[in-house]
Amino acid sequence: MSKRKNKKIYKTSTTNKKVVKINEDFKSQNFIYTRKIQITFIVIILIFILLISRIGYLQFVQGSYLKELAYKQQAINQIISPKRGSIYDSTGKVLATSASVDTITINPNKIKDSKDDDSSKTKEIKEKVAKAFSEIFELEYEETLKKVNSTAQVETIIKKVDQDKVEELRNWMKENKITAGINIDEDTKRYYPYDTFLSQVLGSCGSDNQGLSGIEYKWDSTLSGTPGKIVSSKSASQEEIPNAEETYIPAENGNDLTLTIDFNIQTIVEKYLKQVVDNNNVENGGDCIVMNPKTGDILAMATYPNYDLNNAFTPNETLSRTYSSLSAEEKTNAIFKMWSNKSVSELYEPGSVFKIITSAIALEENVTTPNTANDFNCKGSEIITDIPVNCWSYNDPHGFQTLTQALENSCNPAFMQLASRIGTTTLYKYYKSFGFFDKTGVGLQGESQSIFKPENSVLPIERATMSFGQRFSITPLQMITAISAIANDGVLMKPRIVKDYKNIDTGAITTIEPEEVRQVISSETASKVKHMMESVIEYGTGWRAGVTGYTVGGKTGTSEPIDGKEDIDGYVATFVAISPVEDTQVVLLLNLYKPPKDNYNGGTLAGPIVSQMLKEILPYLGIPSNAEKSGNENLITVPEIRNKTITEAEKILKKAGFNTKISTSNNKNSTVVVDQVPKPGATLSDGSIIMLYDQNTRTSATVPDLTGKTLYQATSDLRNNNLNISAEGAGYVVSQDPPKGSVVDAGTVINVTFKQSYKN
After folding, report:
1. Contact 482, 357 (CB under 8 A)
2. How far apart are CA 211 and CA 201, in angstroms?
3. pLDDT score of 379
4. For the chain, what is the mean pLDDT?
5. Beta strand pairing status for 491-493 and 498-503?
6. Are 589 and 288 in contact (CB under 8 A)?
7. What's the rounded mean pLDDT across residues 217-242?
8. What are the CA-CA distances from residue 124 to residues 141, 216, 638 (Å)?
9. From CA 350, how far away is CA 358, in angstroms rounded?
10. Under 8 Å CB-to-CB from 93, ≥6 apart: which residues?
11. Parallel/antiparallel/unpaired status of strands 255-259 and 87-88
């Protein structure tokens, strides 16, 4: 009985164990299943999070990029180039403009045989097109063929094509019956009518019509305008969708610029600058600026050697001598150097011209007066902290002098003594006020920052040399701007080279008004300095720059190279002039860099050229000479030459100072003068025209419009029309008799009235 019970208990125990085992297995399987579900759920959540993150990234981070990419894939954009604005001088002459040319592009997928399945024929056509392009436009055949076989929607073959080449392409397309895939789009090419004129100031443009240098670069955003475009749609296969709606966005043309530069004054300056550099072998060329001190307007700004703006990457004559021997990097640097506008981009030591500034500071601070006797003593050199600094005339010292005499003599010791009295702090205060520590902001590319030692580190020897313009560096534009402040009654004007710009589309004109910076010195001090400068021309080292009939003030300068650098930098021969002294209308600064060692003095080399420039500039501007101010003096009475032979009459008239015009085809030795115009007894100026007739027929002339012209201009216009002038007053023409358009006898005297004024 007990055994059976034991067996039963054993069986029950075994059964329980099996049940427990089953339960445990079930629980284990249930746990694994649950775990799998959990893991799957977590994975799904992670994937969902990743998808959400990816969508967010695409939407918010790359959204703009993808939108643009989709737009590019779905849209065809045809760019409409804006017209780049022209550049004019102050008289209305076009200095830079954009000429119509064409750009050749292709749609490679459209250049094919009419039968789409004839791939061999399409290949032949494409090779034929590539060959035509390479021959007509002188392009590399293999490179052109790659473009023709390209899978791109559009390929550019060549830009800025002249009309003769375009016409040649049109004829070829017609002959070969190519009607699709080749596009001839209107474009523009920058053109400079006067080649080298104002080259470093104007600058040039690249093949994309973007400014590379000069005003073209500095004012590029104003000149260039905004491109327009025509937008159409294309399918996923990149084919243009027929009859799809097009969006036209017009181009906004650039603005026209009008400069303060006067074409005629610039021409005068460039002519004489080239002459002095070439004739005297001035190694590093020169620059010249002419400014109206009352407005700050730059009337001329020239650098020589210049270069051809229509071939800006071609070396000029000077550079071409060594160009072939340069490395690629050196050639690039040399071209950039050729483009450089010395007047604003390159620093120099102004030399003794700067003595004008030192004089102005001393007078404004009441350190001295122009004519205090024995105020300075020149012994040939000045000892500054045991260092002797020579006068240019150290072998023949100037002795005791007034400030005016010291400026006339350009005496270094006198100005070193003066700078010591003034003191470094006061000097630096006025240097800042004159604008030497700041760029002028003229609106030209690459204006350089001046170099001065910090005030607290200036030693006595450095202050001494600074008094006569050495051992600091400024730009020529800073120098003439400061001198112009003195010429303008002590008022500093901001230099201006762009007068206004005009919106081509609307005609709206934005004027850049003259800008007064500050009053630097009093008008009384300015007047004293100007008359001291006049004394330099009348009695001092600047006498060679004088102009008969005009009051001229000036100062010579000869900047010496730093010790040991003579072969590198050389001397700078310089001259600054103002005229007229009493009411200054013109300031002119001429710099010549590294002149020959036997002729490097500013007075002897630069002075005569300044005189020649002023002789033509002053009359052109209508600034009356002393002779004009005194009325119709020095007039010549027309003699009686009727009934004399033409040969005899010519001799008499030429001896009297007249020019003759003869209306005859007969022998002058035997032909008798029947009549003359003007009649005997008329009074005319030297060079007037006398018409001689051997019969009663007359040669007529049309009277030109002289309104607003100067005596120089009016006289030239009339004489070009075989007419004479009788002038009353000075300045600009306000009336004329007979009036413009009248038909009169050649030789007739036109009565012209002038009014004293100055044209800004």
Report:
1. yes
2. 12
3. 95
4. 87
5. unpaired
6. yes
7. 71
8. 14, 45, 85
9. 13
10. 263
11. parallel
3-class SS at 745? strand
CB atoms within 10 A of CB 432: 14
The single-letter code of the amino acid at 647 is T
pLDDT on residue 6: 53
Alpha carbons within 13 angstroms on the beta-carbon side of residue 577 total 34
- Per DSSP, 83 falls in state P
The count of other CB atoms within 10 Å of the CB of residue 325 is: 8
Residue tagged 């001046």 (tokens): 450
Joined together, the tokens standing for residue 273 give: 């600058």
The secondary structure of residue 621, as a DSSP letter, is T
Q: In the chain, what is the straight-line distance between the N-terminal and C-terminal CA atoms, in Å? A: 144
- The phi and psi torsions of 506 (rounded to 5 degrees) equal -105, -20
Residue 211 is encoded by which pair of tokens? 């400014």
pLDDT band at 73 (very low <50, low <70, confident <90, very high): low
Q: Quote the pLDDT of residue 20.
A: 57
238 pLDDT above the threshold of 70: no
Pairing of strands 491-493, 247-249: unpaired
Residue 82 · residue 227 · CB < 8 Å: yes
The confidence score (pLDDT) of residue 759 equals: 39
Question: What letter does residue 735 receive in the DSSP assignment?
Answer: E
Three-state secondary-structure class, residue 254: coil
Residue type, 623: I
Q: Cα–Cα–Cα angle for 266, 759, 94, nearest 5°?
A: 40
The token duo for 220 is 């590029």
Instruction: Please state, in angstroms and rounded to a whole number, the distance separating the CA atoms of residues 225 and 40.
Output: 61
Determine contact, residues 499/259, Cβ cutoff 8 Å: yes
SS3 state of residue 509: strand
- The size of the chain, in residues, is 760
Residue 168 token pair: 């040649």
pLDDT band at 242 (very low <50, low <70, confident <90, very high): low
Provide DSSP, 624-644. Answer: --HHHHT-S-S-EEPPP-TTS
Largest CA distance in the chain: 187
Tokens of 131: 């060959």
269 Cβ contact list (under 8 Å, min separation 6): 288, 290, 300, 302, 613
H/E stretch holding 8: helix 2-56
* One-letter-per-residue 3-state SS of 154-201: CEEEEEEECHHHHHHHHHHHHHCCCCCCEEEEEEEEEECCCCCCCHHH
Q: Which residues of 71-103 are buried (b: 16+ CB within 10 A; e: fewer)?
A: eeeeebeeeebbbbbbbbbbeebebbbbeebbb
Q: Which of 146-155, 236-245, 546-555, 720-729 has the highest mean pLDDT?
A: 546-555
Say which residue, 366 or 669, is predicted with more confidence: 366
pLDDT reported for residue 631: 44
- Share of residues in the chain with pLDDT > 70 (%): 86
- List, in sequence order, every beta strand (DSSP E) within 221-360: 228-233, 247-249, 255-259, 286-292, 297-304
Calpha distance 534→539 (Å, rounded): 9
Task: Give the Cα separation of 539 and 535 in Å (integer).
Answer: 6
Tokens of residue 484, six digits: 């112009």
- CA 24 to the chain's CA centroid: 96
Predicted pLDDT at 44: 86
In a 3-state reduction of DSSP, which class is residue 461? helix
For residue 514, cis peptide bond before it (omega within 30 degrees of 0): no
For residue 757, which phi and psi values (nearest 5 degrees)? -165, 170
Report d(CA 276, CA 607) in Å as an integer: 11
Q: What is the pLDDT of residues 250-276, one digit of tens each?
A: 778 899 999 999 999 999 999 999 999
The whole-number pLDDT of residue 760 equals 34
CA pair distance 581, 534, nearest whole angstrom: 7
Per-residue pLDDT tens over the stretch 296-332: 999 999 999 999 999 999 999 999 999 999 999 999 9
Rg (CA), the chain: 41
CA-nearest of 133, 130, 140 to 161 is: 133
